[in-house]
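This section describes the prediction task in plain terms. A model, or a person checking by hand, is given the sequence of a single protein chain and must write out its three-dimensional structure as a string of tokens. No templates, partner chains or ligands are provided. The sample shown here is typical of the held-out split.
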Amino acid sequence: MSGLVLFIGESFRYGNQYTRIIGVPESYDEQIKACKSHIRFLEMLQQKYKINKIQAVISTYTTNYTSELLSLYSNYLIGNNVYEDVIGLNNLFHNSIQSVKNIDSYDFVLYIRIDLFLKKNFINGFNPIRDIILFPSICFIPYDKVDGYPRVNDTMLFIPKKYYKYMNKFVICHGLWKRLIINTNLTYNDMDTMIRTYHDSDSFKDYNPLYYIVNREQSQTFHSQGCIFNKYEYLKNVKIKPKNNRVIPQNSNKNVKKSNGKNVDSLYSLQKNTKTMLFDFLK
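The expected answer:
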């Protein structure tokens, strides 16, 4: 098995959403901490799953620390794109893909925002042997829908090889689930989430068990605690019907099914023995 991981976005960013402050000394320690968590993740993939080729591409923006950042990934890095001007996550994603000439030699592509510190839940729980497109989670209720479709957390994206032909249709945004259903022949059977609980992409706004965004505060508020995502329930309320909906519902439980958790810590301590399998990628 072989895999390609794209680390993209604004490195050494300092502040909350919409800030454009990057490269200041105050941003250094936390970004380096995030990078080291990425390396631990890549090492885990090699060791646990015996992946014979795991490589990385970095697409980010220039700072005084760029050379040091790239050197941290030297054992895995096959390319980098460093920009002066902000071009957005979607362009960074597609430019990264286009910079890899032999993309079909990889069994999967995983995109991760470069300013994420990956927690043990993600590093230890991630399973690359999956055959569907995976988003990390759906955003917390009531911000969980885009025209009735699941509103995805857009900080990560797992793409198995059989879906590479659709990558030109990917737009890195909260509405990607809807876009893929409307603009391709993909169905709800082709997409899912890494975990079944709801979490915002911004860890400043909502508790996230998989990661936190560095250089901003972490929320300890779990807004949708006790709610379990069931993708097929969202078919009932879509405002724009898919042109080619071939979905066969597999589970009729409501998308707000209560979990066994009572608080942030206890909910995720149950991940291996709860029937709801909150961490779907542990299956």
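For orientation: Confidence is low (pLDDT under 50) at residues 247-278.
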